[in-house]
Structures are given as C-alpha cells and as structure tokens.
Amino acid sequence: MADIAYEGGALSATETVDRAKVLRRLRLGDSAFRHITRVAAISVLIILSGIILSLVYGAWPAMQTFGISFLFDESWNPVTERFGAIAPIYGTVLTSLIAMLIAVPIGLFIALFLTELCPMWLRRPIGVAIELLAGIPSIIYGIWGLFVFAPFLQQHVQPFLIDLFGPIPILNNLFAGPPYGIGILTAGLILAIMVLPFITSISRDVFEAVPPVLKEAAYGLGCTTWEVARYVVLPYTRVGVIGGVMLGLGRALGETMAVTFVIGNAHRISGSILAPGTTISATIANEFTEAVGDIYTSSLIMLGLILFCITFIVLAFARLMLMRLNARVGA
Amino acid sequence: MKHWTAFAAAGFIAAAAYLPANAADISGAGATFPYPIYAKWADTYKKETGIGLNYQSIGSGGGIKQIQNKTVTFGATDAPLKGADLEKWGLAQFPAVMGGIVPVVNLEGIKPGELTLDGPTLAKIFLGEIKTWNDAAIQKLNPSAKLPNQAIAIVHRSDGSGTTFNFVYYLSEISPDFKSKVGVNTSVQWPAGIGAKGNEGVANNVAITRGAIGYVEYAYALQNKLTHTKMINKAGKTVEPTMEAFQAAAANADWKSQPGYGVILANQPGDMSWPMTAATWILVYKTPVDAAATASALKFFDWAYRNGGKMAEELHYVPMPASVVKDIESYWQNEVKDANGKPVFAAM
To answer: Which of A66, A86, A105 is the last residue of a domain?
Structure first.
C-alpha cells in the first residue's frame, strides 16, 4: 500500500488527494498499532494489580487475626488455628541462598569456559546439554531428588559432613544430624541444578556479545585469560549477567514441586541445614487443598502475598544494585 | 480434504452423542484414601449400567468445600462432620467403606510384623520423646529383637488428610500428653520429623530412609512391601493388621451413637480389634436441588454395598457389615427427600 504514495511522476490534483488519503490510512494503521501494543502493555498491569488485590482480599482475615506478628511467629498449628510465616520465609530464603551460592559461580565458569576457552567441537554438546537441563520438568527433579539424590546424600555425603564439621564450633551446628537425606541442604542443591541452565545460557549469550576487539586489545596488552574475563568480559556484560542471576533467583524462590519432594515439609526453624524445613510455595502446594476453615485458607493466601513481596524486594534490590554499579563505573 | 471434513463431522456427531450420556454421570469429590475402591466400583458400575462416576480425589477438606458450594452431588470425607455441622448445612452423612492404618518402619534386620508397639510408645515416638530405636520402652515390648542404636526418623503427612486425622485421633485417645501437645485435625503441627505428600509420599520416604517410621493406609504398606508393626490393642492383646482385625474393630463399633454414623473406629474394644481402623464417609444434601442426581448417587452406593464387597477386599478395604447397610438404607429413606418431601431413593 505504501508504494502507491511514492508512485506517479507528476503531481496532479487527484494524486495529491490520493496521497493524503494514503497517508491518513498509514497514520490510522500506526495509531491502531500503537493502541494495540499499549493495551497489551496495560493488560499486564491490570493482571498484576488484579492478582495483588485478590491476594490482599484473601489474606485479609489472617491479617486481621494475626497482624504483624504473622511475620515472626514460628507456629503453624491447624488444630489451634495459630499460624505464622517465619519458618516458610526462612526456608524459602535459605534454600534460594544455597542454590545461588552454588549455581552462580559454576554457571559463570561454564559460560566463560564455553565462550573463551572451549574448543569449537565441544561447545555445541555442552551448550545443548545445558539447554536440555533447562527443559526437564520440575517434577522430574523432585522424583530424582527423592529417590536417587536424597538416599545418596543420607548414606554418603551427610554422615561425612557431620563428622567433618563435628569438632568445629558454629559449623557443627550448621551441619548437625541426624542425616535424613532430605532437608534444606538437599532442596538447595536441587534448586542449584535447576537454576544453573538459566544463569549459564544467559551469561553465555551476553559473553558472546562482547566485541572481540576489546578482548584482542586486552590480550595484546599481555593480559591473561583470567584477567580478560575479570576486567573486560564481566564488566562489559554485568547487566546481562545480573539479569540472568535474577531470573535464576526468581525461579529458585518460587519453585514448588521439586522442593516439596525433598525439603521435608516441617514447619520448624532449625540451626542445621541438614534438618527438614519448608518453603512458602511448598507449604501452599501441600496444604491448600485440605485447608479447612477461613483462617487456615487465608493464612496460606497470606503466605502467597509474602512470597510476592519477597520477589518484589529482590527485583528492586537488583535494580538498585545495577544503578549503583553503573553510577560507579560512570557508564 | 473431503475425507477430513467427513472425519470431523463424524467426530462431532460422536461427541454430541456422547455428551448427553456424560451429563447423567454422578459427580463427587473428596477423600483420597477411598479413591482406588471408588474408581474400581465406578468402572464396574459403568459396565453394568452405563452410568459413570466422575470423582475428583482432591482431599477431604476439598470434598467438604465442594459439597458446600453445591458443585458436586456428593462429597467424601475421612473425618466425619459433627452433628451440628450436618445440621447447619442440611447434609446427610453415611459411611461407604473402611480401612486400616498401619505404622511402617525401615529397620535393618526387622521383617514385617516382627516389631510390636503399643499406643503410648507410638505417641512418644511421634512426639519426638523417644529418639532412638534401642530405647528401653521399645526394647521392653520387643525383648527378643535386636534393635539398633539408630536415630528414629519420623515421617508424617505434609498435606491435610483423613489418614492423619484417624492416626492422631488414636494417639490422642491413648495419650493425654499427645492430645494437649498436638491435638486432632486433618493436619497438625508435628513436633518432630519430616513431612511427605500423600500415602505414597510417606511410603516412599519410609522406604528410602534408614531408621524411619511412618503411618500409611494398609494397602500402601502392602504395595510398597513395607515393614508394618504389630500393635497392642485396647484389650491388651497383640494383633497383626489383617482384614479380620479391621473387621473386628468395625463389628464392635456402635454406629448409632453418633449423628450421621460419625463413629471413629480408633481404639475399639475387642480381643481381635486393630486399634487404627478408619471409615470414610459420604455427604449428600438432605433436600437436594437436583433430586435425580442425588438418587443416582445413592443408587450407586447401594449397588456398591451389595456388589462391591469382594472388590473392596481385593484392594484391602473393609466393606460395611450388612446390618449397618440395612440401617443406612432406612436412614436414606427417612432423611434424604426431594422438595415434595418424598424420599429420593428407596432401596429394593
């Protein structure tokens, strides 16, 4: 349609009219496009605020009953209808922390190896393997975690950890028995495996986008590979890397099925990371169907709202960190 | 191309022909514990009558909610509603089938039925007060067993369930300490141990965790070849969990003592009685909006009482005794009526 406007050599009266018409039509098309995209964007806001509103509405009875003490109460007692969120919050944060402590360095190392050091013929198999890891449904991780990983941990790894840290103060509390096989640590390890592909594949993509001339220049100055990675690649790609890490963290915080299988689902805070615990999403998944009574159901919805807030805080924190990084570098 | 249109048309007509038949299906939701037997009954019933059963095993709590919202014709629950609640919602309640709950353990060198426990000891274990397997209390009940110096790993349900309800009901009957510290509900705050989802979750966790103890429906203990324990019952006799022991507990129960047959079969008297026997109940409206649908549901359960006993036993459930069934049938006639006050279903 557009080429009609540019067709025709001499400007006759009718052609001018045609041209105006066509231009108007183009403008109309453009504004329609603008409106459609705007509606699509606004729908996200509507859905989001709808979810927040319904969460607040559902959580209202629990808020009124328990108030702010809901956040700090460790009890979760359906018999006396006394509920508190601190145990699931603790489990959620701690498992995600363990997962990130393991997955971030390993993910970055894999990505650096793939982009900087890996021989060409090996790149593809490792890359495909990582993407396949991302495609495994979480229930499979859960079942594998319960039947294969947890017994292995119980019989081999956990007794070793308990013995190893037994004589060391503080650490012996962190690794106190008995070895159940499942618990906070197992959940953290499974989560680490689950978020690894996210961090790796996003980091790899952004590392590949580093202009070769920058790296060549650094090598030309006599930098080692480590120095190139540390002072050229990572600073250049920090926004993308942090984005990948946040995506992984988001998945770790909200992961339900795999965690439910291996965390032990106990509403307790224990100093030991070998002990069973629970997370917010695991609690909701376990108990929502059988929750009888308004306060019980409402407390579970309240947990959902808290998870929402935690995710929001994490995202806001990531933004803040990026802003400060950018300000410091002056980029 | 033509073929496809023909196929599509045929498919549409088939679907259209199928749908009305589907609409007459009985709809129900609730307890997971009786789901296998309901599914088996439904399958046979469909073959005989053409009427299917659409049962969502979403748990007792969900079943109660769904019948209260009138989204299903009947609700199913493992924890009976109290008389006041039945009254409040205008519901009728009757037991459908029974089963047994057994403690299962994972101990090296101990075979099924080799370990004996009693109520107080079991309560102390689940309170986390008895921490190792060679504790004097367990050793005293099993003088000849070689019990290891191993930590007891407690496995309980993480989801709300009728199994938990019946189990903690029994422990609370036996131990006042357990009653005050934990109490009775479909889910409770356990002082110790790890939680697993569903009977199969507990069974799997006990199977893979050395030194574990858990509680499951009898059928799950058999299917997963778990090591069940013997129990000392109210009469002081040591009993094995068998069909006869569950039936003995049911036979000794006084069904009429509670509204809606809400008798919990824990800790029943009798030399033979297994102490952790449990029934599961059906809820229907006393004056249903759709009388025909409720009649169809009652007809299904009446058929199941009469013809489903053998199937139930095959799946390790305990059918309701004939005397109780007779009573339930007259209860239907007296209680479940349509808008004109006529019974919706009369047993033949």
So the answer is: A66
